[in-house]
UniProtKB/TrEMBL annotation:
This is Electron transfer flavoprotein subunit alpha. GO terms for cellular component: mitochondrial matrix. FAD binds at residues 228, 253-254, 267-271, 284-291, 305. The keyword Transcription does not apply. InterPro entries: DHS-like_NAD/FAD-binding_dom, ETF_a/b_N, ETF_a/FixB, ETF_alpha_N, ETF_asu_C, ETF_asu_C_CS, Rossmann-like_a/b/a_fold. Its cofactor is FAD. The keyword RNA-binding does not apply. The electron transfer flavoprotein serves as a specific electron acceptor for several dehydrogenases, including five acyl-CoA dehydrogenases, glutaryl-CoA and sarcosine dehydrogenase. It transfers the electrons to the main mitochondrial respiratory chain via ETF-ubiquinone oxidoreductase (ETF dehydrogenase). Binds 1 FAD per dimer. It is found in: Mitochondrion matrix. The lineage of its organism: Eukaryota, Sar, Stramenopiles, Ochrophyta, Bacillariophyta. Residues 29-208 form the Electron transfer flavoprotein alpha/beta-subunit N-terminal domain.
Length: 335
């Protein structure tokens, strides 16, 4: 005679076989690490490691293009799987997806994570397709091993979603999680990944990487963004001077990018970069919902605008209703 527990287990297995199967496996996580400098771990990857710790207490493994020294890793990382491939290999999402498949076949991870950055948004869908999984993107909160919270409707609402498949494939919004401390992982193991399938419909041509003394926009503690109110690209020099004094990065609204004032890699918003600095200064930005969704998690928001009814003025912690061409030089002088 079957017990109530046996009957319940049987029903669970019949209704959600993947969920039941994953429960029998020891929880483990593979994080697709965003490329960074020599022997460095990107800030977005450190935040994703924190998210992984909230999933379970099982081992955390990083997938990288090179071996990493234990001193650069958080203590929660137990293994680094590296491809030992040149930049042109790691620059192609198809190649990384093949590496993920190879690592998954060998280790059977229960969770595969990537930062919800441009890098992660490029790689994760391909990796999920190779693994025949449905990804859950832009996770901002972990409720359990299989239940997560993600924003919808440009951040105006939050949806609670549950993954029932055996392997959970997720991208984590870096600004929603604290960066894990790179305090050193004393027992980290480096494992080389070999014989990865190289088939790809895309060929690497070249990489032109711009160099800047300013911090990366996605991880800067201070961000100063300009909008259409800047009037032209030359006026962004004012923001650059102030940013240099504050040790911050320069961003822009979509309107400023579409107007050709600055390149699109400076765009902050739903279709640009999502930032959550300690201080966000919005200059000449009206505050369209697409922009607000990309910076609303900033700790302190300062808005400088000559329109007191602009939406950005309603969400700002400090709002200065003044001509930006007068306010910015005065602020720069006094910093």
């Amino acid at each position: 005679m079957l017990s109530k527990f046996s009957l319940a287990s049987r029903r669970m297995n019949q209704n959600h076989p993947a969920l039941f199967s994953s429960a029998l496996r020891n929880a483990s996580t593979l994080i697709i690490a965003e490329p960074a400098g020599e022997n460095e771990v990107a800030a977005s990857t450190l935040a994703t490691i924190t998210a992984a710790q909230k999933l379970h207490s099982g081992p955390i493994t990083l997938l990288t293009n090179k071996a990493l020294d234990a001193s650069s890793l958080p203590s929660s990382v137990s293994k680094v799987i590296h491809t030992d491939q040149p930049l042109e290999y790691h620059a192609l999402a198809e190649s990384i997806a093949n590496s993920v498949k190879k690592a998954q076949d060998a280790h059977k991870f229960t969770h595969i994570l990537a930062p919800a950055s441009k890098f992660g948004s490029n790689v994760l869908p391909r990796a999920a397709a190779v693994l025949d999984c449905s990804p859950i993107t832009d996770v901002v909160e972990v409720l359990s091993e299989d239940t997560f919270v993600r924003p919808i409707y440009a951040g105006n609402a939050l949806a609670k979603v549950q993954a029932t498949q055996e392997t959970k494939v997720l991208s984590m919004r870096a600004t929603a999680f604290e960066k894990a401390d790179a305090d050193g992982s004393p027992n980290v193991e480096n494992e080389a990944l070999s014989d990865v399938e190289q088939q790809s419909l895309t060929d690497f041509v070249s990489a032109n990487v711009s160099k800047s003394d300013r911090p990366d926009l996605s991880s800067a503690s201070v961000v100063i963004s300009g909008g259409r109110g800047m009037k032209n690209g030359e006026n962004f020099a004012m923001l650059e001077t102030l940013a240099d004094k504050l040790g911050g990065a320069v961003g822009a609204s979509r309107a400023a990018v579409d107007a050709g004032f600055v390149p699109n890699d400076l765009q902050v918003g739903q279709t640009g970069k999502v930032v959550a600095p300690e201080l966000y200064i919005a200059v000449g930005i009206s505050g369209a919902i697409q922009h607000l969704s990309g910076m609303k998690d900033s700790k302190t928001i300062v808005a400088i605008n000559n329109d007191p009814e602009a939406p950005i003025m309603q969400v700002a912690d400090y709002a200065l209703n003044q001509d930006l061409f007068k306010a910015i030089p005065e602020l720069t002088e006094k910093v």
